[in-house]
Amino acid sequence: MTILCYHSVEPDWESPLAVTPEAFAAQATWLSRSRQVLPVRNALSRLDARGRLPRGTAALTFDDGFAALHEHVLPLLTRHRLPATVFLVAQTLTPAGQAVDWVRTPGTGRLTTLTLDQVLEMQDAGVDFQSHSWAHRDLVDLSFEECVRDLRDSRELLSDVLGRPVTLLAYPRGLHDAGVRRAAEVAGYTHAFALPETAEEPGDFAVPRVGIYRGNGLLSVRVKAARPYLQVRTAEPVARSAQRAKRVLRGVRART
Ligand SMILES: [Zn+2]
């Protein structure tokens, strides 16, 4: 299994980033019945050299901290007792705030992020919050010093407002290079999560995740959550040949 990466869960935002509440409900039910969902921190110590979790386990993450998580995700996490980590853009919690200006498919409605009260309510309910940088800039475009400052400011602000250490980072858009990875370490993080589209060497500062997008039905979530899928994604740049996909599907069906 693997670490899954969602963004939002909401009905009206027609974007790959927004899974519908119905789809997420089905996926959460399936995960709770069929898999042991681990807190992300526990998952980190159980990853193998390829960034895969042991068979039968999974972990749930959400990037960006969209406000819709409070309405459409929190009740399901609570009902199914599913642990999850949400990666927050720190500046959105400041008094000045930050508009959701980083999304490439914003849709017609106004996108908002969780308020501090909602974050704290969710934290009380057991949701883990970690860093998604200060302002969701592409870290690979920053100088090393700018990158360290961005990531350190985020970690410090979030640690303060959450009242607990923040040591995990999800790179905005999953983008990183050697300088960004080193900046994350210098800024005080112990691990950072990527979202590899192509071959990528896994490590503590490049923990692979698999994105779940609108339109992914339960079957594709099963496929993406299976160990062979991540193996294909991290080991080979072109992962979508029909033959390989069928092999992955066969493996999933045999186990369920
Ligand atoms: Zn993001």
Kindly describe this structure:
The protein is of the alpha/beta class and 256 residues long. It has one domain (3-217): Glycoside hydrolase/deacetylase (TIM Barrel), CATH 3.20.20. Helix content is 39%, strand content 13%. It has 10 helices and 10 strands. The strands form 3 sheets. Strands 1, 4, 5, 6, 7 and 10 form a 6-stranded parallel β-sheet that branches. It has a two-stranded parallel sheet with strand order 2-3. Strands 8-9 form a two-stranded parallel sheet. Strand 8 (168-170), helix 7 (178-186) and strand 9 form a beta-alpha-beta unit. Helix 6 packs across helix 7 (178-186). It is globular, with a radius of gyration of 17 Å. Bound molecules: zinc ion (ZN).
For the largest beta-sheet, the strand count, sense and barrel status come to:
6 strands, parallel
The set of bound ligands, ions and cofactors reads: zinc ion
Q: Give the class from helix and strand content and strand pairing.
A: alpha/beta
- For this structure, the quaternary state is single chain
Low-confidence stretches: 233-242
Secondary-structure element string = EEEHEHEHHEHEHEHEEHHH
